[in-house]
Threonine synthase
Amino acid sequence: MKYSYISHLYCPKCEAVYDTKQQHQLCICGSPLLVDYLWDELKAELKRDEVAKRQPDLWRYHELLPVENEKNVVSQGEGMTPLIAMPTLGADMDVTNLYMKDEGLIPTGTFKARGAAVGVSKAKEVGVKEFAMPTNGNAGAAWALYGAKAGIQSTIVMPQDAPKITRNEVALSGANLYLVNGLISDAGKIVGQAVKDFGLYDVSTLKEPYRIEGKKTMGLEIAEQMDWEMPDVILYPTGGGVGLIGIYKALNELKKLGWVEGDLPRLVAVQATGCAPIVKAWQENKNESEFWVNSSTQAFGINVPKALGDFLVLDAIYKTQGCAIAIDDQAMLAEQAKVARLEGSFICPEGAAVFAAIRQLQKEGWIKEGETVVALNTGAGIKYPDTVNIEVPTLEKGDSIEREQIAGN
Amino acid sequence: MKYSYISHLYCPKCEAVYDTKQQHQLCICGSPLLVDYLWDELKAELKRDEVAKRQPDLWRYHELLPVENEKNVVSQGEGMTPLIAMPTLGADMDVTNLYMKDEGLIPTGTFKARGAAVGVSKAKEVGVKEFAMPTNGNAGAAWALYGAKAGIQSTIVMPQDAPKITRNEVALSGANLYLVNGLISDAGKIVGQAVKDFGLYDVSTLKEPYRIEGKKTMGLEIAEQMDWEMPDVILYPTGGGVGLIGIYKALNELKKLGWVEGDLPRLVAVQATGCAPIVKAWQENKNESEFWVNSSTQAFGINVPKALGDFLVLDAIYKTQGCAIAIDDQAMLAEQAKVARLEGSFICPEGAAVFAAIRQLQKEGWIKEGETVVALNTGAGIKYPDTVNIEVPTLEKGDSIEREQIAGN
């Protein structure tokens, strides 16, 4: 048995093929590259029951991941996050079978750790010494910290409005950190120049082929955790869209292996009304999105005006009879409070947008009675201290609490 | 097979015995109560290999936990946090076999979720409708959120200096939150009065018997993750000390079951020099600690001037030939940066104190060549944004990075 059954890289646009021993970025045609595997061998040699016996992290699927030598694996125990039933919230929105895949329980507190773990491991394998990336905060934090563990130097550029906690993570890792007075697209231009000037490996979203392989493990895990029965709907907060592309890739791969059967779940891209390029493109039945001018949302992770992989996101939506939907910040933050109050989970605004989307899609009849619905919460609420505004009474030593102060009594 | 093999509650001081169907607080003698189980039945009916096949959360040990009816379990997927090898940091401090149990990867981002999951579940089972507690932040956040999921109302009082993120967690859960201009001991007095005035269930540290059962799962998991071989040393950041008491209880229980053999690991209580009552008591060979006046440390979770369970912590240290050690804030924060840089993990200051303690104990020869050492990191660094001070250059749109700005090149 091989550790990885990786076969080659291919371009989903022009069908060019690349080997996996060298460092690659985009295809010469400008498209992101995808990883393919030796499906016949894999089908013959790996059984899903075998996977179930392994350690509860994403490396349990190592045959389906691109790292060929186990010694290159850079891991901090990421993956196999819980899939949690949400019966009380579900009852509140008339969705009987509601689940949350909670990506808050992962190193750095967001799903970005998956892409970083696999991406950094493969970067180590192909000899990368230094990489650079623009980020809205969480991806940069994950890549800088996994880079530190791998001994790879990193340069990270983020908007000055990105969550402050992510600055700490990047700085403490020993990375070169820069803020920019602008958006992630402005950070991207600065990184692009640095990559050219200094020959750095560019790990911007989809500019290296392996982060998507890390993120696809969310799809693999959902299938395994549902006992290899696919849900009816999976909703994903969509900025760069790599998570959604990854889940779509994962479920297709599981079908190839015969581990799941039947129709794929309908995939839903959830965006913010202040930055909804994918939603607009889907509404207009287009295959690519347009740059969203003056984008703005408190859900910082999905403030991406134009995603390089937009055509892959839209393809996944169309092929699965999914949809795209935009949620305003107010509805998002109201839903964040509801999830905490009804299910005891402090989720991130991006995750809250997904639950608000479910509420709306149920009302519109798009989600039907009895359907099984999986919401991706992409991160822990504790990474976004500024989205919650509260007023708290302060007592002095020796004060006592008055009963009428206690709510609900 | 029963879901729980709980037998009764007992007092470790006066040996009084209590049933487990009623709500209990302290023993009539004032001591915390502990939970006992039906060891003969358990030994006959439960095998450790059986546990290994279960879901990766702390409820895999349900027979060793106090909740008798599975329907009362309030879970968000907590437990089976990773045990991570730290070879680079280990080499840096000449400790060859260094591991970190990472309690950052758990709901609410700290180990407090374990106590809350089991404590709230059992509170639900014995019919609690409303509880109250003082907290340094993290425990209150965990209990309020798990309380919300269980449908139990909570009243939480915390020092106004407690980490601000924990205010958000408590407030969003719908709990009654109060700040106090003072320490956790002042918050405790206010809670004590409210408990008396309004007949609330008091879930202050060790004033209810079940939180410790949740925390003991850290010990169960360490044993299972080390393939039922006990490490030589386990170090724990010690405020209230429940984690250390729990780990000691767990390892003794595993010995009773015959799942582990040999000497228990030497248990080490790590405190801050600004609040070190257990260290002082241990140095003076006493069985109880004295109230630490004017306590102060950036590691807020271990700012506990006098712990109710101090005698149990000291007993565990003495019985295992362990020790107690104090670390100053500067060494703690320097170690936090080192762990990020060398192992890519952004840990909390309390966890960083543990690694600083290992460094010191190795220098002193107390930790010996080749010993296996497990450090508990009790929470994610992202919950403490104010402990990291960094300066970051800000660029304007269109600026470029100068090569000399890039460190390490």
Remarks:
- The longest strand of chain B covers residues 153-159.
- The longest helix of chain B spans residues 242-257.
